[in-house]
């Protein structure tokens, strides 16, 4: 069985189950939660530093953002919350989560803390086909394959999340509402720059085949016009943390080293396992580029735009070299 991350995480007791879904931005709980952190800043909690970076871009110096997962060595699928996390959420005015079963620990914290914090759920805001709808519970069993929950790789969704954060921060801090709106607009302009990179890849490489070790980047690669040639059983098994059957691994290896190989392999750099390593080794032996992507921000990077821009540049470079 694949070891996804090496960091050991502490468990917290007494967390209640998330009862049901709501809209993309909901009041969560019946207790009281102060809207200000130290220095009068609005307290924002994000499930991961991906959403923390977006909240920081929108909130600027008027917010204090805490990302519950802020390390490339932590896995949102497997993360178990600590009592300190619960205390942090209880003091928040706004909680930003991915949703869709990806980071259920954060949604459960909101539910169990009794906070009145508004919760921004990216999956529910996305409007993507297959996304969980209001009134349907998420996360029970966390089955993959039905919906790609990695929606921070979908630029329109990220824009919608940023605009929602600006709206909710403005409600919590009306005196600075115009600032949050302006910051979100500026962030949107930066997203336009990322979209230009996507469009450039599409213009040069539309229709080219790639393989992925997991479906993490597929929203972005599909927007760039690239075709995913990965056997579905392979990426699903890896994402679930199981070893693909021998026949499935053989089919994946044929995709990268057969008579008609893909142009590049896009690998989740935060996973490791014998199957993914065999695929990456086979690709390199064939002379194919391997592009690493991640689920959280790399060490030393605190900007969503800089992170995604670097990944897009790496993908473009790989495809240009393979062309």
Gist of the model:
With 323 residues, the protein is α/β, with parallel strands linked by helices. The chain contains eleven helices and nine strands. α2 packs across α3.
List the helices and strands and how they pair.
Blueprint: E1 25-27, E2 42-48, H1 49-59, E3 63-69, H2 83-90, E4 94-97, H3 104-113, E5 118-121, H4 122-126, H5 155-172, H6 177-205, E6 209-212, H7 218-223, E7 227-228, H8 232-240, H9 246-257, E8 264-268, H10 274-285, E9 290-293, H11 304-322
Parallel strand pairs: 2-3, 2-4, 4-5, 6-7, 6-8, 8-9
Antiparallel strand pairs: 1-5
Main location: other
Signal peptide: 1-22
Subcellular location: Cell envelope
CATH class bucket of the largest domain: Alpha Beta
- Total separate domains: 2
Secondary-structure-derived class? alpha/beta
Examine the coordinates and then state which fold CATH places here, giving the name of the CATH topology of the largest domain: Rossmann fold
Provide the succession of SSEs: EEHEHEHEHHHEHEHHEHEH
What is the mean pLDDT?
86
Tell me the radius of gyration. 20 Å
Low-confidence stretches: 1-23, 29-34, 134-145
**Count of alpha/pi helices:** 11
Helix content: 40-55%
- Largest β-sheet summary: 5 strands, mixed
Report the CATH superfamily of the largest domain.
Answer: Nitrogenase molybdenum iron protein domain
How are the strands of the largest sheet arranged?
A: 1-5-4-2-3
Dominant shape: globular
User: What is the correct CATH architecture of the largest domain?
Assistant: 3-Layer(aba) Sandwich
